[in-house]
Structures are given as structure tokens and as C-alpha cells.
């Protein structure tokens, strides 16, 4: 079969993503650290040293740059920066600024996420996002991120996957342990409005630091697919879990699209994937086309004025050949969406490293393997394959074929 290269646009973001708590290690002042060490929480294993990226971030960036990536999304840890209310660590602010400067020195454009699932213990003790004044407290923290992001950072993400924050809050209030076999728990409505308010306050704070910074947030797209006759059920199910958060980004500079698999919806709600479906280490259906559906749905909701950036997309697998297959299918879908005129500004894989997946190290999403004892980094073949596309900006593609 002949192949013709499909080019990605000039300036297209091409990178990989991480989150502080999942790779840094020893984030002892965070709510998640406390949860990991609470027997009642029944967490499979604690994060402990994670990938020791707090000390080894230069190795991580060196590898990404050598592989050909041009962008790196990482997060700053609020619990490190503000370990007690109103007291900000100059040392930690300087640490994250060094990371920004280190990325720039290696030719990596930094995308900085200000909140990726973890909060300081004291913030949780106040009541978290629904506490009185929570949005102002978050905005105060964002203001103190000015030395980190004021120079050289073009893209800032305020809050990662706010819809999952609301879903987890809803599950906690309902006393649910774990997720249903298909779909998501009902989001907590109060938390939904609270995180939207915090986002709006953070956007204002970032723009006050420098109006040239492109600010947005990222949504966990579940790719809800309606079975015949279930379109209204699907729309009603999707809105509180996804669309309300997409709509909240209408005045942002960009929106992050994050997808991994799909969820089919029938007349009675979500339907589990068939027993014979190929599954990943997270037990999700192997479905690389998901990201294309997620991009198209987000564009349908938000319109063409807000650029879309794939800020997470990937697969948990021990078979790296299937990881390459997944990325190839996913990028076919991204390229097809670009061909159809969607305003897509970048693609960042999840994840740069095999890391702590919120309770366990077993699901390996990483392009780079990390030895749990020595912390030695080893790039997988998928990392070389994906990084090479960053140099050429061209995806080998079947002639005339669309995903």
C-alpha cells in the first residue's frame, strides 16, 4: 500500500505530559499523600518516591528533547508551594522556575498545569473546592506562580480534568467505592460550579500576570457514543459530566482535549464493552479513534474560535508494539480532523514516564520506562517513533485514507 505523508501545521505543539504528584515523589503535604497512607482509603500502594522526578527532571527533559519532542507539559505542586495557608516557599517557586528555564534551554516549550488533582492538606481540611473563599485561595496561589510562568511560558492550564474532580466528589458523597462497570458516577453539582468559579478566577489571575499567556483547562472526554434511539439519553448523561465544563471554556484561549477510550450509551445508560474487546491495563477498551471523536465533539460544543490541544492521549500496556499501534490510530484521527478544518494546535501524549497512576504503578502509560529501584530512564521504541514525528511533522498515512 502506498503512503503519503500528512503534515502537521507549523508551530504545532508536539510533546508529552506528566503531573507532579505522579512523578515527583514525596509530596508529603498533599491530600493524596495523606489518602495513600490512610488504611481506610484502601489504596493499593502509595506513591512514595514515584519517579524521583523532583530531582531528576533534567534527565526527563534531556530524553524528551533528544527524542525529538518540542513541547513538555508538567504541573507545579500547590502543596509544595503553599504548605501552610498564606506561606509560600521561595525555594519551591525557584525550583519550578528552573524547570521552565531548563525546558526552554533544551528547546522544549513548557506548558504549565497549575492544578493536577492534588491540593494542600490544609485546603482539603477547609472543605476543598466547595469551601467559602476557595476560588480566592486558588487565585492567590496562581498569583504566586507569577515568577514561574511570567516569562517563556506560552500555555498555562489552570485545572486538569475538572469534570473528574466533580465526579470524584459526587462518588465520595454517595459513599461509592470504585466506579461502575461502564460510565461515570454522577458529578457533584456544587463542586462543578465551584471548580468553574475557581477556573474563572485563575484565568483572570494568569491574564493579570501577562495577557500574552494562553490560558485554558483540560477536559476528560469520555467519547459517549449513542446507540440508535439513545441520542437524548446520551446528551442528558453527557452534559453534567462533560459539556458544562467545555462550555465554561468558551472565553479561554484554548481548551485541552483528553481521551483514551469510548463509552457506549443505550436507552438505560452506559453499556460495558463486549467481553471479547481488547482491553488495556486499565481495563478500558482499546479504541485509538477516541481522540478524533473527542476533538469533533468539543469543536461542536465550543465552536471554531477556541483552539483545541490534545493534552493527554495514550494507552496503558506492557506491549509497546500495541502502544505504537494505538498512537498511529490516534494520530490518523487527529490528522483527519485537521483535514476537515478543525482548529487543532497540538498533540501531547500521556505519559512521558511510567508513573504513579493514582493508587498503583501497574498501569504503564509511559513512553519512557523508569526502574523503580535505580530510577534509570529507558526510552521505549514508541518514544523514538513518536518523537521522530516531532522532527518531521509528518505522519505516514495510507493514500486517501481517513481515520
Automatic annotation (TrEMBL):
Keywords: Glycosidase, Hydrolase. InterPro entries: GH, Glyco_hydro_1. The keyword Acyltransferase does not apply. Belongs to the glycosyl hydrolase 1 family. This is Family 1 glycosylhydrolase. It comes from Streptomyces prunicolor. The lineage of its organism: Bacteria, Bacillati, Actinomycetota, Actinomycetes, Kitasatosporales.
